[in-house]
Automatic annotation (TrEMBL):
GO molecular function, one term: uracil DNA N-glycosylase activity
GO biological process: base-excision repair
Organism whose genome encodes this protein: Nocardia panacis
Similarity-based family: Belongs to the uracil-DNA glycosylase (UDG) superfamily. Type 5 (UDGb) family.
Residues of the Uracil-DNA glycosylase-like domain: 64-241
Alphabetic keyword roster: 4Fe-4S, DNA damage, DNA repair, Hydrolase, Iron, Iron-sulfur, Metal-binding
InterPro entries according to UniProt: UDG_Type-4/5, UdgB-like, Uracil-DNA_glycosylase-like, Uracil-DNA_glycosylase-like_sf
SUPFAM superfamilies the record matches: Uracil-DNA glycosylase-like
The protein's name: Type-5 uracil-DNA glycosylase
């Protein structure tokens, strides 16, 4: 199985991306300006603000992943919310989707508290890290294909740095599933053919000649469109997280 390396990680096509640690990756992500449309949008939102948050200083930058660098379980979403992560600087923090997600993580013992309101609120994840295939808030919550693909080198880097401990990935929604599979294939895991389709409660085991095998779970996204309509209930989300927790040995 893969051993941790002391050499900097250089991602193909991005020779300036040298990340020895997850902390270095997070710092590098936060400085990215690769997608002009997303840069303009996230900064516009940070200037204009929502009335309820007019007295707050918005993060207004790419939002790095969040959680321990030796996580056994990785949660993959879509992108930061304009007035959630783009405001607070932490994935799923300060929005309705995060309210549902962190309550479920706490319910199954993977977070120390059920709420996430700001970056210094004391929230701690237990063996879990949260990331996204796109790190900037996109207009209408819809990244363009080229923006998704341009951001993929950060996801590949994150997977490589987490690989020594990573055992389980839970993907929230079809967008994340479709974005993650190519990154997993490029990072050394074997993707079945035909490529598996997203479904809630989907579960497969990905093998690799150089990495530890990884369990991949699908779950509907914790968007208001899903949670308000009952397409995704707290019980459904907790069930997937419980199965993932067991598979990860947490």
């Amino acid at each position: 199985m893969e051993q941790a390396s002391a050499r900097p990680l250089v991602v193909a096509g991005y020779p300036d991306t040298h990340c020895r640690t997850v902390a270095e990756l997070d710092a590098a992500v936060a400085e990215c300006r690769a997608c002009p449309r997303l840069v303009a949008w996230r900064e516009k939102i940070a200037r204009d603000k929502r009335a309820a948050f007019r007295d707050e200083t918005y993060w207004g930058r790419p939002v790095p992943g969040f959680g321990p660098p030796d996580a056994r379980l990785l949660l993959v979403g879509l992108a930061p919310a304009a007035h959630g992560g783009n405001r607070t600087g932490r994935m799923f923090t300060g929005d309705r989707s995060g309210d549902v997600l962190f309550a479920a993580l706490h319910a199954v013992g993977l977070a120390n508290q059920p709420t996430a309101t700001h970056r210094d609120d004391g929230l701690r994840l237990r063996g879990v890290r949260i990331t996204a295939p796109v790190h900037c808030a996109p207009p209408d919550n819809k990244p363009a294909p080229d923006e998704r693909d341009r951001c993929r080198h950060w996801l590949r880097t994150e997977l490589a740095l987490l690989a020594p401990t990573l055992r389980v990935i839970v993907v929230l929604g079809a967008f994340g599933w479709q974005a993650l599979l190519p990154a997993l294939g490029e990072s050394g895991w074997e993707i079945p053919r035909p490529r598996p389709r997203f479904a809630h409660a989907a579960h497969l085991l990905l093998s690799s000649p150089t990495r530890n095998p990884v369990h991949l779970f699908g779950c509907y996204h914790v968007s208001q469109q899903n949670t308000f309509t009952g397409r995704l209930t707290p019980a459904m989300l907790e069930s997937v997280l419980t199965d993932a927790k067991i598979a990860a040995g947490l």
